[in-house]
Design a protein that fits this description.
Number of domains: 1
Distance between the termini: 45 Å
Radius of gyration: 18 Å
CATH class: Alpha Beta
Order of helices and strands: EHEHEHEHEHEHHE
Strand content: 15-25%
Number of strands: 7
CATH superfamily: NAD(P)-binding Rossmann-like Domain
C-alpha cells in the first residue's frame, strides 16, 4: 500500500479512542506508532492485534509530562525505518478541579500532556518534514489535535483541563500558520463519545443524549473526520465539532457530573 512507508504517531493509543484510531489507520494502509505511558501490556496487545491484520506497528513508551521522554520519543521516530509523516495528539490528562481549588501540580500536568507535549511534537514533525522535503522523501505532513467540544460551550467544571484544551485549540491555529510550508494542522472536538471510568451504561446514555440532536459523537464519526482531515489537502487550521449541538446550548455544569 502507498502509505506503508509513512508512519503516523497516535499518542495514547494502547486503549480507548486512541486504539480505535490506530486500528482504522492500519486498515487504510498506514504504519502506526503506538504510544503509551503506563499501559505496556495493553499496548503490546494492541500492537499484536494490529500486526495480525497486516499492520506495520512500532511501540513507544513516553511520559508526556517529562520533556526528556518527549525528546526521546522524537529521536526514535525520526530514526525509525518508516518516514514519520503524521501526528494525532490524542493523549489527554483529565482530572477534576475548579477555579477555586486547582493547584500548580494539577495545572502543570494538564498543560504538559494536553498542550506542551503536542506543541513540541508538532514542531519536531515540522522540522523533520522540512528535512524530508529537501531530500524529496515527503512533501507534506499533517497533525490532528483531539480537542473537546466543551471548549465551545463552556461551564466552570474541569477548570485546568478546559484551560489546557483551550491552549491546544490555540496551538491548532498558530501551528497551522507557522508550519504551512510543511504541515497541515487541524482538530476534532468530540462531545461525549465513550463512557468515562466509573460511569455506568445508564449514566452514559443520559449524558450522550444531553444535546440538541439527542445524540453526541460516535467513534465512527470521529474516524470519518480523521480520514477527511488526512485526505483534504486544502484544509488547515480547521476544527471539526461533533457534539450534537451541545455547544449551542451548553449545560451550566459538566454533563459527566
Amino acid at each position: 500500500m502507498k502509505n506503508k512507508n509513512k508512519t503516523i504517531l497516535v499518542t495514547a493509543s494502547a486503549k480507548r479512542l486512541g486504539k480505535v484510531i490506530a486500528t482504522d489507520l492500519v486498515k487504510f494502509g498506514w504504519s502506526v506508532a503506538i504510544h503509551y505511558n503506563k499501559s505496556k501490556q495493553l499496548a503490546e496487545e494492541t500492537a499484536n492485534d494490529l500486526t495480525k491484520i497486516g499492520g506495520n506497528v512500532t511501540l513507544f513508551q513516553a511520559d508526556l509530562t517529562k520533556n526528556s521522554d518527549v525528546e526521546k520519543l522524537i529521536y526514535n521516530l525520526e530514526n525509525s525505518k518508516s518516514t514519520w509523516s503524521g501526528l494525532i495528539n490524542n493523549a489527554g490528562y483529565f482530572n477534576y478541579d475548579s477555579g477555586t481549588n486547582f493547584d500548580i501540580k494539577n495545572l502543570n500536568d494538564h498543560m504538559s500532556v494536553n498542550f506542551m507535549a503536542p506543541t513540541i511534537l508538532t514542531k519536531a514533525l515540522a522540522n523533520f518534514t522540512l528535512k524530508m522535503k529537501k531530500e524529496r522523501k515527503n512533501k507534506q505532513g499533517f497533525v490532528i489535535n483531539i480537542l473537546d467540544a466543551k471548549i465551545f460551550g463552556l461551564n466552570p467544571d474541569y477548570y485546568s483541563y478546559t484551560l489546557s484544551k483551550q491552549a491546544m485549540y490555540g496551538l491548532t491555529k498558530m501551528s497551522a500558520l507557522s508550519y504551512s510550508a510543511c504541515l497541515r494542522v487541524n482538530g476534532i472536538a468530540p462531545g461525549i463519545t465513550l463512557s468515562a471510568p466509573g460511569q455506568d451504561e445508564k449514566q452514559f446514555k443520559k449524558s450522550h443524549k444531553n444535546n440538541l440532536l439527542k445524540s453526541s459523537s460516535t467513534t465512527e464519526e470521529i474516524l470519518d473526520a480523521v480520514q477527511l482531515l488526512i485526505k483534504s489537502k486544502s484544509m488547515t487550521g480547521h476544527v471539526i465539532l461533533l457534539d450534537g449541538g451541545a455547544h449551542l446550548a451548553p449545560p451550566r455544569r459538566d454533563v459527566g457530573l
